[in-house]
Every structure is written in structure tokens, then in C-alpha cells.
From TrEMBL:
The keyword Nucleus does not apply. This is Polysulfide reductase. It is found in: Cell membrane. Its main location: membrane. One of its GO terms (cellular component) is plasma membrane. The chain crosses the membrane at residues 54-76, 88-106, 126-146, 167-188, 200-221. It is a multi-pass membrane protein. It comes from the Bacteria. It holds the Pfam family NrfD. Gene3D superfamilies: Formate dehydrogenase/DMSO reductase domain. Belongs to the NrfD family. Keywords: Cell membrane, Membrane, Transmembrane, Transmembrane helix. It comes from Mycolicibacterium duvalii.
Length: 337
């Protein structure tokens, strides 16, 4: 018998040739197969340099998109107060989103520089252009709501008033992209907790954006006009919770980062508040206090969802198994096929 270079025991010579029946002798491992994780358990990836401002950017961008979509529906169905609240909410949250993004970039001109090129393979580039297309429409629609009555009689005021509906509809058309591109942006990084969730994360973010936009409308608009907001809240919450649950169970080992630690705590409270807000939206009727409370719960749930996803991604970079094990599984699957 001879020990081979790969740790297996063969019969006969170095390769078992020349020994009758050697081909039928089953080889045995003399050394157990190593389970490599990383060099002395050290991290393979560095944690993202982003901090809480990026999580806030994810939330405020989604809130803006959900509010713009609700504002367009309110405009088309003749609900002026809900339209006003949602248009102003869309602009305010967009400005907050851009503030968090630019503040995290460190230099404001970096946002401007990203508009010099359009790169379809870059989610950041496409997201910047998406914001560029979305912002003017959301801005014009909101300015029309803020314009004093005496200014509306002027030539400029008349023009802005006439452009308000087309601008609002244009913003609503781009709103789903604004709400979901950040999920694609996270998924294109090397962070395992985000990359492995690339098939589900956009649905989580879109549902969360719809729920938060509806929550803002329920919180601030007159209760008599909150019917569309309450229906959007139920739809968005159902999509968010279903996609979130599916994601954490179908992304393999990286799903542990969503069900343990700080991320799990944040997302558990997010689900409680989101489901509670959706139930309140469905059964609260015209009770002002119940509608407003449900709206606040939906906003808080959406905020915690984004922070939970952010924390899960950071946690997945700190243990090398979330990098090595999925890579090994993909290599083994490719070898079999």
C-alpha cells in the first residue's frame, strides 16, 4: 500500500497499477478532508465603511417614492389634502435622502460628478440619474402645494399649477425605481448578507416604501381622505413581510445574519410594527386616533426594516464562513453540472 499526495491510500505501487483487483479496492482517506474557513479565523472582508446615515438614506428614499405614488393616486381621485401631505412628504424625504447621501460621500460635488456619465452596469450611476429624473417632478408638484393663493394668479403661478399634475405623475412613474434601486445597489457589493439576498431585497424595499408612504398619509391627512393610504398600507406591508420572511429562509447560510443579533432584534420589531400598522389600517375605520397611530407604526416599522437589513450586511462581513461556505457550495454545484 502507498500514501498518495492527496492523502488517499492506494493498493500496490504509487498508483495501484499492476496489482490484481486494485481497481476494485475502494480508496480510503488517510487524512480527513480539511474544512477551510479563513486564515486563523480572520475576516476575509472588511466591514462597510458606511454608518447609520446610509441606513437613513435607504429609508428616506423609500419614503419619498411611496409618498409620490400615493400623491399621484390622491390627485387623480380628488383628495386634495392627502395629495398635499404626500407631495410635501415626497419632497421633504427626498431632500433628507440626498442630504444623508451627500453627507456620507464627504464632498457634495461627488454627487454632481456622478452625473457626468451614465453607466448601465453601475447601480449607483443609474440611481443617480433616477434621482435626477425624479427630483424635478416631485419638486414642482410640492411647490404647487406651497404656493400662496395670490401667487397662483400670476403667470408663473399659473404655469406651476398647470404643471403640477404632469410633474406629479412623472415622479410617480419613476418612484418604484427610486424605492428599489438602493436594494440593487446593496446587492451588487461583496457583502454576503446583501449579495445573497439579491433576488428578494428589491421586493422588501418596495413593500417597505409603500407602507411608509401610506403611513405618512395616514398620520397627517384628514381621516376622511385616508382610504387609498390605508389600502396601500395593507398591500405594502403584506409584500414587505412576505418578501422578508422568504428572503431569510431562502438565501442559505447568510440568512443567519437576519435571524440573529442586532439585525434580528430590529427586524422583529419592524415586523411587529408593520403588521400592527397594517391591521390598524384595515380595521380602524374613521377613528382619527387609530388611523394616526397605525400610520406612525408603519413609518417606524419601515425605518427599522432598513436599519435591520443594514446591520445584517455588516454582521455578515465579520464571520468568514459567510464568504467561504457559499463559494464552496457554488463551486461544488458547478463541478457536478
Amino acid at each position: 500500500m502507498a500514501l498518495r499526495g492527496d492523502g488517499r491510500v492506494g493498493v500496490g505501487g504509487a498508483d495501484g497499477v499492476g496489482v490484481p483487483g486494485a481497481a476494485q479496492v475502494k480508496e480510503q482517506l488517510a487524512v480527513p478532508k480539511a474544512e477551510f474557513r479563513s486564515y486563523y479565523g480572520r475576516q476575509i472582508l472588511k466591514p462597510p465603511v458606511w454608518d447609520w446615515k446610509i441606513a437613513a438614506y435607504l429609508f428616506s428614499g423609500g419614503l419619498s417614492g411611496g409618498s409620490a405614488l400615493l400623491a399621484a393616486g390622491a390627485d387623480l381621485t380628488g383628495r386634495p389634502q392627502l395629495r398635499k401631505v404626500s407631495r410635501l412628504g415626497a419632497l421633504a424625504s427626498l431632500l433628507a435622502s440626498m442630504y444623508f447621501l451627500i453627507f456620507d460621500l464627504g464632498r457634495p460635488e461627488r454627487f454632481h460628478h456622478m452625473l457626468r456619465v451614465a453607466k448601465p452596469s453601475s447601480p449607483m450611476s443609474m440611481g443617480t440619474w433616477m434621482l435626477g429624473a425624479y427630483g424635478p417632478g416631485a419638486g414642482v408638484a410640492a411647490v404647487a402645494e406651497l404656493m400662496p393663493r395670490r401667487l397662483r394668479r400670476t403667470r408663473l403661478g399659473t404655469l406651476v399649477t398647470r404643471l403640477a399634475r404632469p410633474a406629479g405623475l412623472e415622479a410617480a412613474a419613476v418612484a418604484p425605481g427610486v424605492a428599489s434601486y438602493t436594494a440593487v445597489l446593496l446587492s451588487q457589493t461583496a457583502v454576503p448578507g446583501w449579495r445573497e439576498a439579491h433576488r428578494f431585497l428589491p421586493f422588501v424595499f418596495v413593500g417597505s416604501a409603500a407602507a411608509s408612504g401610506a403611513g405618512l398619509g395616514m398620520l397627517l391627512a384628514p381621516v376622511a381622505e385616508t382610504g387609498p393610504a390605508r389600502r396601500l398600507a395593507v398591500t405594502g406591508a403584506a409584500l414587505e413581510v412576505a418578501a422578508s420572511r422568504t428572503m431569510q429562509h431562502r438565501i442559505g447560510l447568510a440568512g443567519e445574519t437576519y435571524t440573529t443579533g442586532r439585525a434580528h432584534t430590529l427586524r422583529t420589531w419592524s415586523e411587529i410594527l408593520t403588521v400592527g400598522g397594517a391591521v390598524g389600517a384595515a380595521v380602524s375605520g374613521r377613528r382619527r386616533g387609530a388611523v394616526a397611530t397605525s400610520g406612525a407604526a408603519l413609518l417606524a416599522g419601515s425605518l427599522l426594516q432598513r436599519f435591520g437589513v443594514f446591520e445584517a450586511g455588516v454582521a455578515s462581513t465579520k464571520d468568514p464562513k459567510y464568504v467561504v461556505v457559499p463559494q464552496r457550495e457554488r463551486l461544488d454545484a458547478a463541478a457536478v453540472t
